[in-house]
Amino acid sequence: MQTQAHTQAALQAQLEAHIRMMKQRVERADVWWASLLRTRFEDGAIDVAWDEFVRLFRAKFIPEHVQDRME
């Protein structure tokens, strides 16, 4: 019984660590996007095509070797 409780506690800790990491990544992406809108699209053209967003997002956050495998 103790081993099962220990395993569950370890899994819970791992899950919480993953959630914290994902929150940080979402916050980082949000800051990046807000900054990009202010600098690159400073003319107020906030309507960005989905393809353009995906291209910019991948260039910023996904390593090239991973992008190559995605295609």
Task: For this entry, give a set of tags.
elongated; 80% helix; 3 helices; 71 residues
Question: What string gives the helices and strands in order?
Answer: HHH
Helix and strand content put the structural class at mainly alpha
Question: What portion of the residues fall into strands of 2 or more residues?
Answer: under 5%
Gyration radius, in Å = 19 Å
Distance between the termini: 47 Å
The number of strands is: 0
Query: Low-confidence spans: pLDDT under 50, at least 5 residues?
Result: none
List the domain count as a whole number.
1
- The percent range for helix content is over 70%
Judging from the principal axes of the Cα atoms, what is the shape? elongated
Explain briefly what this protein structure is.
The protein is mostly helical. The protein has one domain. It has helices at 2-39, 50-61, 64-70.
Topology, element by element:
Blueprint: H1 2-39, H2 50-61, H3 64-70
Task: Give your account of this protein's structure.
- This is Retrotransposon gag domain-containing protein.
- The protein is mostly helical.
- Helices cover 80% and strands 0% of the residues.
- It has helices spanning 2-39, 50-61, 64-70.
- The termini are far apart.
- The mean pLDDT is 83.
